[in-house]
Hints:
- The complex is a heterodimer.
- Chain A has 21 helices and two strands.
- By secondary structure, chain A is mostly helical.
- In chain A, helix 4 (106-124) packs parallel to helix 11.
- The longest helix of chain A has 34 residues, at 154-187.
- Chain B contains 21 helices and two strands.
- By secondary structure, chain B is mainly α.
- Chain B has helices spanning 2-24, 32-53, 64-67, 75-94, 96-101, 107-125, 129-147, 154-185, 190-199, 206-223, 232-238, 241-266, 272-294, 299-322, 328-356, 369-372, 374-388, 394-408, 412-438, 452-469, 480-492, and strands at 60-61, 72-73.
- Chain B: InterPro entries: NADH-Q_OxRdtase_suN/2, ND/Mrp_TM.
Amino acid sequence: MMSSILTQIIFLPLFMAIMLGVFRASLETLKIGAILSSLGTLILVLYLGYEFDPNGGMQFVINLPWIKNSGISYYLGLDYLSLVILLLITILMPPLYLYILKEDRKGYWYNMMLLQTGVSGAVLSLDLILFYLFWETMLLPIFIMIGKYGNGMHQYNSMKILLITILGSMSMLFSILYIGYMHFETTGIWSFALVDLMKIDFNAKTSIILAAGFLLAFAIKIPLVGFHTWMAPAYGSAPTPAVVIMSSIMAKLGIYGIWRFGFSLFDTTLIYYAKIIIAQALVGLLYYAIRAITEDNLRRMFAYSSGSHLSLIALGLFLTNEYAWSGTLYFIATHALASAGIFIMIGLTYKRFKTVNIKELGGIASKAPLFTFFFAFFALSIAGLPGTGGFVAELLIIIGAFKYNIWVGVFTALTMLSAMIYIFWMLQRTLFGTPNNETDFKDLDIKELLLLFPLMVLLLVTGIAPSLFISSFEPQLLSSLEAVLSATKGLQ
Amino acid sequence: MIEQLYFALPMMSVVIGAFVLMLLSNSTKISLHTFNLIAVFFLSISFITEYLTLSNYTTTYLFEDIFGHTFILDDFASIFDMMFTAGAIFTLLVNNDYFKSRTYFSGEYFALILFSVFGMMMLSHAHELLSAFIALEIASLSVYTLVGFHKNKGISSEAMMKYMVLGSMTGAFFILGTALIYAAVGSTTLDDISLYVNSSNMEDMTLLVVGATFIMVTIMFKIGAVPFHSWIVDVYHGAPYPITMFMASTFKIAIFAIALRLYIVNFASINGFWTEILQVLTILTLIGGSWLAISQTLVKRMLAGSSIVHSGYLLIGLSSIGLDSQFAASSIMFYLIAYFISAVGSFGVLSFIASKSRKQMSYEDFKGFAQQRPYIALMMSIFMLSLAGFPSTIGFLGKFYIFTSAIESGQFFLTGLGILTAFISVYYYFKLIAMMYFYPSKSPQKKFPIDISTIIIVIMALLVIWGGIGTSLIPFVPGADGFIDIARSAILSLS
């Protein structure tokens, strides 16, 4: 049971989707099946979390030969990093299904299930080709969901996001193939397993090129500033569940990729070039914040806000000290929860007003108190409201930034203030003031409360009792940080 | 003798079938469907006997006392033979409906397909240059005729003329090359050539190298490498769907049969000579093919253009052979299998659609296709994903092997370019998927028709997925590993 639990987590949704498809399930059955698969994986993951040993390193490992001739294996494993992201995926899926409960286009449901398989597979893979497989697989449902169910210039935008992300993937593929070949050349055996490839000694030049191949893929996914041109159109025209998944989970996989594969394979190179990425992330923080201030479309505004916060996460990762890393991992989780919350709120706003233009909204507070409360709560937790998880995470990263360099710290802290500006200004224009729209505004109903409440509780718990969570991943996090730092001693 | 006859049975059954069909073709009582079944019957006998004899013999010569070393029997040729017969069987079965919907098809058509397959089989067994040339011409002449089979249609006749004139001209290069090689070696059997190549200095071999280069021109023309590609899009477009499918999936592979045999074994020690030429051709082919494929509005023409790009990937492998890559030859073989399956599937879908409507299938015509025919659209998407090299399809593994062998031989630029063109190909393949899925359909959903054509398409789609992710965990069913083993054993039997 324990050895195959990761397989079950990955393939349960896909299996369900195939079964429902083969037997041409009715819409109702499809919905029940999808929800059951998400609940099933949630139970499995919670069980994993319960069994997880904070000091245990890579756990629940399964390693089977897949394509033997080329040393490609079906190699899965779970550690603190994958557990956090896996938990996020599985926690977010049921609320998302609840959100699309009235959605009667079957493709929507199938794509969501396929998406969950792709994302969980990518997080758990420890073989680079297997990782690449899942990495690409999760792109397909997003492509179809934007292209088929999006709005605006969605067909064009879905093609754009597909091409840009595949450009990144292809560069990563080149690096993967080359590393695999290097392993063959040095040992005479083909292997794409991360543990094997970590043993290869690259010379500096090769390492830079190969690391660049990986970084391009991850930078596009995050997206770091300069690689972000797909982001606003994609977030703008994607349907809400796809937006939630892109901002809450897929973007985090970019960070995860750097963390897992980048730092494992090219620690020296990455530390050496950390300064450049830190600078890029700082520019990103500011740039996205300014774009967010000037944006009138709520979805696009929070897309930029997401970009800004993801830059902060990338910044934290490259600061490579214990505060920053703890903060980064914590922020991955809390930002995912908060952005899922806010994008669902934006979706609900759209359902009611048929617009997400800030200028056309206003005065919601006077009509829908519950809606206002949740909207403000999620927006503020994005900005790092004390008492929510985001606050703790941001604080840790800022402390880490100060520890790295006082100017980086000051700059990070200052740019964080910009989030307050656009969030408060947005809240003032959407929630308060005179209503622009005369239609009756329905407050949240029980189903919507049910889907938002858990997110809020999680954000509050992570904000009030951070030590509860941090203590569970800190030992492993510190030891892997130690490993990276000792490998790169003398470069800092 | 009896044993030799048994080994020759695959080729014999095809040629006997061809003659039987030709004799029957005058009869007006026999329906196209029956002709089709007769052709498939003979091809199936060939396929099955070939499968049974696979690995049963160590490399020998066919009727050595009569033909000398003209024809060789090895696993390499057998596997190619199986691909040709399978290609022809699939072509005939998938297009069963298409034949019925077009009045211009007749019994001769099936005879010609079988003659062409016979030519290809001879080509894969050929161990002597003149018989290789004759084999190539048997295959080519049949295909020329097949291209122009719709005689009342302008573009079909034009395509045939274009193909025949250019094809015959480049065929002349083959014979000229053979003559030069004969002048140098004093023999045209591959054994003697390889003996000569291995025992002489490079300086003494100028004539032979020039001759072999001429032969290469013919090969490059037939696979549509840039700059010998100008015929390909028009010919593929002008030919009836079944022929386009046959050319793309089967005939192209036949050319690689002789190319691999020549350049892996016989010219092995001077292979390095062609590497630079091949690299330049590869670059041109990848870029030119991508450009052609992107700029098309008709799906058939896009597939024709993209088939040039696929030749480009194969050329990457071919130039890696010259740079002593261990895996290049088997990766070419695997890529051929992968491309074969995907091409049969995608052209099969096109001809399935064409049998129901007489429109030229442009991208626009595919709008809303997923709603109208969800399952066929799903299959088509799978084939497009495979052609684009998306992971979890056999096409991905094909590219995986080609690129690793290129990296192994130090051709980083070509690997990079290959990956870049694979990226470009995402655009034109996914455009079709986008058309099918992103637009509402004008007509209501149709029922999935269960007939021979659709069954073959489903089998191909399953093969694409199975070849990409099938594992060796399930005993007796060769997964991705099995396909690679087939490719490797074929190459091993060559030396």
